[in-house]
Fold Putative dehydrogenase.
Amino acid sequence: MRSVNAQSPVRIAFIGCGGVADFHAQAILRCSAARLVAVSDRNVGLAADKAAAWGAEARTTERLLLSDDIEAIYVLTPMESHIELAEAVLKHGKHVLVEKPVSHDLEGIRRLIDLSGQQGKWCVPGHSYLYLPELARMKRLIGEGAVGRPLSMFMSEIYRMPDERARLYHGPSIEVLCHQIYLMIALLGVPRRIQAFAGTIRRELFPDGDEQVTVNAEFESGALAHLYVSWAGEDETSDPWTFKLKMLGESGGMHFSRRDQVNGSAEIQREYPLYLEMFEQQTEHFICRCLLGEEPPLSTMADALRTMEIAAAVRRSFINGTVEALKF
């Protein structure tokens, strides 16, 4: 991939100024090698407010694409517009980071992979958890055989999604399970078959029945994985599984919890600093290693394709009650 000018901060723009954009903006503001230049959003007022808060300029999407002072664009819109916008960014000769989940349009993801190669520009999925030092180290140590042959993976993401916010999103099988899937691919590879179950308490909010989803995966190596995501309730037990990953091998194991650091209390809104840190680490890698250093991302658009193929199989499984063989 052709790098950008290393003599000055990499100039970034956002398409989309929703909630996740705040985390990306904070991460860029803390990265000396990058500068947020401009933003756009269908809500012109929101774009203007966010631009003022972040020290950037509000522009139309068309103007962003044509701007010579922008080198890379983050696509932070709802998933349904990701492919169209990312294709436009690449065709205008700019690097692009696409927020997760990338898209249900598998052919569209394949087009992004091809177009990225043709244009010589990075097209990177926002698979942010892999950039946390704890999880990057876990991936490296498993690859080095530090815990022996991997035997099992257990992963969860559990919290209560308020009614008013649940109405704004697809269910967790679409919005968040991709995190568990791309981490599973990174640590164990692609399973040979999966089976999923889903359950719903608030049926009016989750018409697909996926307020909570559990997935069992079987690998050619004999390893097994269990993934669980839920928007149905909180885990306030003595060992909370709010976001937890455990890997066991023949000669050892590893563990990660997003709640290893917590700010605040039950009375005051809790903050999980590791959540913001993953955006900071992803930004540092994308800017300093991919764009300036021409190193590959820790998770590629090919990984995003596999992730979304498996996510589609998960939905077929819990909707149809099937065991899904994965043959990619």
Observations:
- The chain has eleven helices and 13 strands.
- The chain has two domains: 10-126, 130-278+308-325.
